[in-house]
Specification:
mainly alpha, 3-stranded parallel beta sheet, 6 helices, 3 strands, 60% helix, globular
Length: 102
């Protein structure tokens, strides 16, 4: 399983993004390895397409990649608070890092 950050998905969905080609290459290199991210990250990724009226296109692209959105467990608030306090990362990034490996 590979946990994907919002920046990779945002770049992949936006052909005008400076990192579009690299994001596509990274996702393609995953091959048959399952891809996942937090549902909060998916919400972050979908803001731009929603604003642009392209939500359905973005959802189809994510489905084609087989992106599996993972929810937060009951212990997530404590784990996320600790990770954010220790790293000073933004909360969506903490959500990605805190996903359990399968």
């Amino acid at each position: 399983m590979i946990v994907i950050d919002a920046s990779v998905l945002i770049a992949h969905l936006d052909a005008d993004d400076a990192h579009h080609a690299r994001a596509g290459a990274l996702l393609e290199a995953a091959g048959a390895t399952p891809l996942t991210t937090s549902r909060l990250t998916l919400a972050e990724v979908l803001v731009g397409p929603t604003r642009a009226g392209k939500l359905e296109v973005a959802m189809a692209a994510l489905a084609q990649l087989g992106i599996d959105g993972v929810g937060l467990n009951a212990d997530a608030p404590v784990r996320l608070a600790g990770l954010r306090a220790a790293t000073r990362l933004k909360m969506p990034d903490c959500c990605v890092l805190s996903l359990p490996s399968r």
